[in-house]
Automatic annotation (TrEMBL), chains A, B, C, D:
Protein name: Single-stranded DNA-binding protein
Motif Important for interaction with partner proteins, residue numbers: 181-186
Signal sequence segment: none
GO terms for biological process, alphabetical: DNA recombination; DNA repair; DNA replication
Amino acid sequence: MASRGVNKVILVGNLGNDPEIRYMPSGGAVANITIATSESWRDKNTGEQREKTEWHRVALFGKVAEVAGEYLRKGSQVYIEGQLQTRKWQDQNGQERYTTEVVVQGFNGTMQMLGGRQGGGQGMGAPSQGGGQQQGNWGQPQQPAAQQQNNFAPQQQSAPQQQAPAQQPQQQYNEPPMDFDDDIPF
Amino acid sequence: MASRGVNKVILVGNLGNDPEIRYMPSGGAVANITIATSESWRDKNTGEQREKTEWHRVALFGKVAEVAGEYLRKGSQVYIEGQLQTRKWQDQNGQERYTTEVVVQGFNGTMQMLGGRQGGGQGMGAPSQGGGQQQGNWGQPQQPAAQQQNNFAPQQQSAPQQQAPAQQPQQQYNEPPMDFDDDIPF
Amino acid sequence: MASRGVNKVILVGNLGNDPEIRYMPSGGAVANITIATSESWRDKNTGEQREKTEWHRVALFGKVAEVAGEYLRKGSQVYIEGQLQTRKWQDQNGQERYTTEVVVQGFNGTMQMLGGRQGGGQGMGAPSQGGGQQQGNWGQPQQPAAQQQNNFAPQQQSAPQQQAPAQQPQQQYNEPPMDFDDDIPF
Amino acid sequence: MASRGVNKVILVGNLGNDPEIRYMPSGGAVANITIATSESWRDKNTGEQREKTEWHRVALFGKVAEVAGEYLRKGSQVYIEGQLQTRKWQDQNGQERYTTEVVVQGFNGTMQMLGGRQGGGQGMGAPSQGGGQQQGNWGQPQQPAAQQQNNFAPQQQSAPQQQAPAQQPQQQYNEPPMDFDDDIPF
DNA sequence: TTTT
DNA sequence: TTTT
């Protein structure tokens, strides 16, 4: 029990897409979201305004994944606290690849929806909000946004949560990496 | 100027190797280190103690890189505050690859050496640390640990630092991705 | 269940004194420590080096309080993650007073001892730490440092921990404010 | 230059009142705001839902203070990153008192407005939004919200900012503590 | 590859 | 009151 070291990530940004929800054989939910953070500055040489957006891959597990699936949408602004985790996987050519994600799981992380009642995903990294009369980025619980058909395990999660390994169902699956959205560069 | 969103990483861990120092054409220093954080827990099924170590790739720029090169060594314990950044590069087969790093640069991050030489502990009657052999993982400034021969730009760093683009020398180089150590899996 | 908003404090510093340990009627441990963080800078006008130390009052509850009592001592370096909490109390003149503390409790916080016994530094040829006298600010578990005689509840703690109210024994006591050390200015 | 230790506070919450803006003799702006964070949980004994709100006093300096004065209003949701600082002052009876604040200053902190375009301060700790047709908690820059007549220095700020003492105008004034709002308990 |  |  316990952990040695600190591994903490804090993000505030907007979702680039609706969450993708999957369920593990154990029944536990997993939500994958991508979050944009950006910085803007005036270029010292050209004098023009510039902006750079960083995209973060976030994986939420358990209860917080269910909440994400119900309430978060493309453009939603969120606060994320989680841990860095790098997964190894094999691409179609059998080559080893690595993907780094922010994992929100158990007591090791948290997710907070921000800006309740705000209208739209015009922010930062969020393009137009497909769909006509949609008012906000959350509100009433809805049908899961991007529920997947396949129920295989999305990510191997063999680490415990900090301070409370016992209460947290461990994921023990080692499935191939899922398909990612093509419009976000990873 | 300014930034929209929050992108922050906080790590406390130990270096897996001596820092690798490089210099950009501009003369700015870059230090690459890998930091281990770990968690241990008792397996619910087998009852045995388990441990998982996460390795983090950290890139420090400028003054903080020089300090890292002088004082940090394999095994050194550090506090790191930086930002997540994912770089795209091409592997030898021309395939796109992505690497995520924690970037410490300008006012957007900080590095603190931990546990060095503080051994005092007067509350317990611990003796002063005077004595011959080197005590900790740092002490006197030294020769750079792992200075590289090649001086080309190691990472593209086109983003500004938060709130202070002007004071921070921007790296404007777009060099090919540097060779990474082959013995570190990312 | 759940929380709205984020309330997080991160400290790395050294203890100004041995921890003070108390026990609540429920048997739960409470540790009070003070942590120093400091900044130094060169005065723009006089050109001289200046330093300012900030002292933080930290209250730890439960298991983490027991660990603090066993292993931490005056001078120990620690990483603290907790929440800000302001308590109201009456001074001897019946005047309302407020004290702000960093509370570490349940899954809402963590404490990490830093720099202990890690002295390895194989990268520099540093020798092993074997040797007689106590080396650092912690080592073997010991007798509680500053155990108090009075066992009444030290602080009212009516807030739940984030995300896990059920697993964490709540302190339900509303005792008069404890006597604070007179030699610490808050 | 530099700092020893880490002193960091991260808050996400809503303003309890409009910001109070003051200007120092040097012309630098200071904004004082109070931020609510809250937690709710189900009482284990009574089974009823309970909630506890924590109020945080935040002082912003310089440019970020001006932005706060222009855009933040009672009910606004913000992300705050700053440092803990405890000030000593004398009450009307000549007694020493201490007030702990979160200080956002220079490169040592940041403020992010959240939920752009959202309508109203109904959140958490924010009562009704006085004033008829007001749409959001920010939008167009406006007249400073609660500009003070007196221009004396609000808080002594003798500490430097981390890593950049030179660029930051130091406040050198030691004025009496300002009056606080009576409707927020400190 | 670190550390305990 | 700590630490460097």
